[in-house]
Every structure is written in C-alpha cells, then in structure tokens.
Amino acid sequence: MPHSDDWQYDPILERELTTRRPAGGMIQAVEIAQLPSSEWIINVKVSWRGDKWLNVCLFEQPTLKTYKRLSSAVRHVVLDYGYEDDHIRLVPDKQCSNKLAF
Fold first, then answer.
1. Distance (Å, rounded) from C-alpha 80 to C-alpha 95?
2. Which terms are listed as keywords in the entry (predicted)?
C-alpha cells in the first residue's frame, strides 16, 4: 500500500464480507496495512467485486475499521471472515515507533 496521499482503494462494508457475501463468493487476498497513526486496517480482494483492493469499513458505515493491535486484525480476518486458505500480506508503516501496535 503506497504511503502517499494519492492512493485510493474502494470501500467494502464489513457486512458484505460476513452476512451478505454472495453464494460462492470468496475472499481472494488479504493485506493488513499500518497507518501512520500506528493503527491497522484490513484490505481485501473478493471474487464478486473484480480484481481490485477494497478497504474494509465498519459494518453499516463507510468509515475505515481500524485496529490498535495487529493480532486483533489477524484474528478478525481468520475467525470472523473465515479466511484461512492463503497468506495474509502485512504492510507495516516504517515511520511508526509504537511497538505495542504489534
């Protein structure tokens, strides 16, 4: 994930990944990226929305869902989204100095 102001992913509501996933719809790839604030966000590629990265937003609001710890984001992807078939790409922010965020 680029660390400039010109990157833009499309949003996907968390409910679309859980309760409203289409029949046969799959999560194809996951990356967990760290923001400069040291919080983590989840980005996904899904089979029913084409081949582009999507920012996971809150269940009913197009606001980024953030996590204070990396372990919480990973647990959420595996347990709540049921993604355990492939790798999860991690994108840490090199300028973050908060070691507790890991």
1. 30
2. Plasmid
- The tens digit of pLDDT for each residue in 6-27 reads 456 899 999 999 999 999 999 9
Q: How far is CA 60 from CA 18, 21, 67, 101, in A?
A: 12, 14, 17, 26
Domain ranges of the chain: 10-95
Q: Which residues contact 62 (CB under 8 A, 6 or more apart)?
A: 11, 13
Cα→Cα distances 68→6, 44, 48, 50, Å: 24, 19, 29, 29
Predicted confidence (pLDDT) per residue in 38-97, tens digit? 999 999 999 999 889 999 999 999 999 999 999 999 999 999 999 987 899 999 888 776
